[in-house]
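Researcher: Predict the fold of Ribosomal RNA small subunit methyltransferase E.
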Amino acid sequence: MTAPVFVVDAVPGAGNFLLDGPEGRHAVSVKRLREGEELVLADGRGRWAACAVVAAEGKDQLTVRVAEVHEDPEEEPRITVVQALPKGDRGELAVETMTETGVDAIVPWAASRCITQWKGDRGLKALAKWRSTAREAGKQSRRTRFPEVADLMTTKQVAALLAEADFAAVLHEDRDHPSGALATADLPAKGSVVLVVGPEGGVSPEELAAFGAAGAEPYRLGRSVLRTSTAGTAATALVLGRTGRWS
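Model: Structure tokens for Ribosomal RNA small subunit methyltransferase E follow.
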């Protein structure tokens, strides 16, 4: 098994380092790491250090020795999923599984048919929960670069994002649409791929028109219709496999 990942604000250089606070408590009291065991310190932005435990103290302090410091470049193509707000806790489920799969960025989208609405303090708390979920899922899946979770976007803002992409697609349930399947689309080897996942009620004709004008055509994933909380994960996995990022 690969070494567990713990997040730090800044990855230290060679030498001893004290891991304390919530991450130290998790390492000592939950993971129960002991002298000689390996771990990784990462900043979630691609920089990380391979370490070995020197000593554990109390319930929340771990002294580690930093052996090597690395920096992972951003992978290409960069995959962004625009996720319409799902009902209940399915938003966190979508963020968690997309992060584990390998998505690079997630954009919450206030689609016209979304039942859930992010407004005021409730919206800020929901966004914070998405970002926390991405961070924890990134650690759990041993990633050194966690996905960015953007601020909530409107349809107009999403259209502007799609217009800048090297490939943009709206995941759609219409299996007879002329654009065909995402599995056979002409995907770029580099640059950016942006995938739009609609809400439970689907993407409205007006939204499809706005996204089409920005260069994003509808594509189907398969014969079955996936829920909004799983479509982004399936599409991300498909793109990762087809572009060689999973090779």
